[in-house]
Amino acid sequence: MNINFLVDKEKKRVVVSNQKGTMKQREYQDNIKKVLMKEDIVEELESDYRVLKINKTSLEGRLEDTNKKIEENLKKRKSFIFGFLAAFVGIPAYLCIFEYFVNIYLYRIGLIEIKTFIDSWLLSGGLVVITVALSPDKPFFESKRLQKEKNEYETYLEELDLEIADLVQVITKNKAELQELIEQQEKNNIELMIDGIQEVTYREELEMERMYLTQLCEENTIGEEKEQEKKSSILGRFKKKKQY
Predict the structure, then answer these.
(1) Hey, which bits of the chain come out as E strands?
(2) Residue among 29, 19, 15 at smallest CA distance from 197
């Protein structure tokens, strides 16, 4: 990061100091201040890019973790459903068989009452419902929450991808402007340069670039929404035609 610079008129050089206090000499040109400012802007924007990439990696990790939880939750729900069916069939069958042998033992051979089936099914269903409700995992309740969490992460990632793409566009633009400034090698106004150390003030222009980035993101978001609406409209018309 360029912090300040000093023009050495005698040697036609510029001494530039960075944030660590390191001094570096470079060739003088009349627009040297603009060059140093633009270099700082590019460096700041690239730092923003690295932060966004880190955030994306973090979100991708969270999404992957949520997907694993969804898979585990699905397995648990299948286990509960299997347990429910087993209990729903097994408990009534067990009680009916038990009643049948009791009747034989008591010399009351006859038909098994329908009430026994109903009571058994109510008992088995109630046991499964209570088991699900008291389960610390609560797979059926967790399913909705995990799906919502997944959708949120996917939405954040889509927005982040758009922001990264827009930021790359802004960085590319500023790099092109920097290269154009560097190629302007005029050295006619060195005597007019200020004597003494000058600060490289780039914050105002950096904020303007960030405002431009925000505007670009908003325009692209609106464009994306319109494109989605257009696709939905076309799909809707296609479905209507298909019905006819």
Answers:
(1) 2-8, 13-18, 23-27, 198-199
(2) 15
In sequence order, the 6+-apart residues with CB closer than 8 A to the CB of 143 are 70, 73, 74, 77
Residues 6+ apart with CB under 8 A from 188: 30
Q: The tokens 């979100």 sit on which residue? A: 59
The pLDDT, as a whole number, for residue 5 is 94
Task: Identify the pLDDT of residue 78.
Answer: 75
For the chain, the 3-state helix, strand and coil shares in percent, each to the nearest 5, are 75, 10, 15
In terms of C-beta density within 10 A (0-12 exposed, 13-18 middle, 19 or more buried), how is residue 166 classed? buried
Nearest-angstrom CA–CA distance, 62 and 155: 13
Give me the chain's average pLDDT, please: 80
Report the DSSP beta bridge partners of residue 7. Answer: 14
The pLDDT of 210-222, averaged and rounded, is 85
Q: Model-level pTM?
A: 0.71
Residue 95 neighbours by CB distance under 10 Å: 18
Q: How far apart are CA 147 and CA 141, in angstroms?
A: 11
Q: Give CA–CA dist 62/46, Å, rounded.
A: 24
The fraction of the chain above a pLDDT of 70, given in percent, is: 66
Collapsing DSSP to helix, strand or coil, 18 comes out as: strand
Contact 117, 96 (CB under 8 A): yes
Our measurement of the distance from residue 216's CA atom to the centroid of its chain's CA atoms, rounded to an integer in Å, reads 19
Residue 22 CA to residue 19 CA, distance in Å, equals: 7
Cα distance between residue 156 and residue 149, in whole Å: 11
